[in-house]
Amino acid sequence: MDFWDLTKLLFRRWYLAGPLLLISIAAAGVTAYTVKPDYSATGDLQLVPPAVTPDAAEKNGHPRNPWADLGPDALGQAIMITVRKQDVVDRMVAQGYTDNFTVSMDGTSPIITIEAIGKTKAQATGTAQEVARLLGQAGTAQQSALGIPRN
């Protein structure tokens, strides 16, 4: 059976093929009308190492920064855990942000990637910006807790 035979068969069985075609078109139209799009926003946050080496900081009377010894990936993982906590996510949702976001870090670079998916463009963008702000606050808090001064 080739394409021409199939076409002749459909025309012979028009009473079955016609309504099925109309039902398919109607279902596609209803789906296109009722399914709303999701919006995605992506942001990157770079962790910058301190300008002063740990040894020079100790010579100037400042405490040694253990995060500098461990590397930016250790600090990145620590602040990502802080932002992923359920109470932080619940607070963000109460403020109108989405809870559908991911925070990841490639182990070879000090860049944290944020991806947020929201029902509106503003919600997705706002969530990515809020997560970046919270990550920055968490990084400052992690270092302030150890008495490390800001550069």
What does the model show?
There is one protein chain. The chain is of the alpha+beta class. It is built from seven helices and three strands. A three-stranded antiparallel β-sheet has the order 1-3-2, with helices on one face. α5 crosses α7. The model has no long low-confidence stretch (mean pLDDT 85).
Q: Helices and strands in order, then pairings?
A:
Elements: H1 3-12, H2 14-34, E1 39-46, H3 54-59, H4 66-70, H5 72-84, H6 86-94, E2 101-105, E3 111-118, H7 121-144
Antiparallel strand pairs: 1-3, 2-3
Quick summary of this structure?
This protein has 151 residues and is of the alpha+beta class. The protein has helices at residues 3-12, 14-34, 54-59, 66-70, 72-84, 86-94, 121-144; strands spanning 39-46, 101-105, 111-118.
Rg over C-alpha atoms, rounded to the nearest angstrom? 27 Å
Average pLDDT for all residues: 85
Helix content: 55-70%
Categorize the overall geometry: elongated
Comma- or semicolon-separated keywords:
7 helices; elongated; three-stranded antiparallel beta sheet; alpha+beta
